[in-house]
Amino acid sequence: MGGSGRPGWRWLDLRALVTSIVAARAQWARARIVRVVYCTAPIDGASNPSGAKDQEIYLRALRAANSVDEITKGRYITKLVRAPLAVAGPGGQADVARSAWPVMVQDSAGQPVRNAAFLVSVAQREEKGSDVNVASHLLLDLLHQRITAAVVISNDSDLAFPVAQVRDLVPVGVVNPSKGYTAGALRGESQTGVGRHWWYNLRPTDLTAAQLPVRIGAISRPPEW
After folding, report:
1. What is the pLDDT at residue 127?
2. What CA–CA distance (Å, rounded) separates 152 from 178?
3. 120 strand-pairing partners
């Protein structure tokens, strides 16, 4: 969505975004936003100092503009992963690359080993904790009766169980922020549980229409944003 090289969408006003999305839902007439929680993970300043600086500016801006009520941070971990070399196949599925000319594997006798797989190792950065934090806030808000409906902006199928449980108690809207289809585990029927549930795919125009002011007090939007 958007893309790192396209300015005009990253300086996002989260409260304005969700307010506009909810306002367009006929089944939630007169709904109002009472609590916005942003779950994210800090960028590593050692490997990406400019990204970490811009992220911190953005988090300060969200607080200063009252765009969020709470920011909960997870973490990133870097680990070495070994997996077969693959390319994108039909429907975006991974197709394992196999040996074939002009790149061929040879055995110890120098004979071609056709259809062999290539095992590669890569450094993988993985966000940890954000899905758990989203689920925890969702259930705690219900427990403390802070909400009568919920909007979850995520396409993480790990949230399937808590979202399904919450649908039995309050209406839930699921907003998919990615370009692809909504994860099957997050889909459902609008009238399950208490009913009035809905699903929405975020569009680039939703982002560009919900931007923070360029300056918020002493805080300025990063130039490349």
Report:
1. 67
2. 13
3. 83
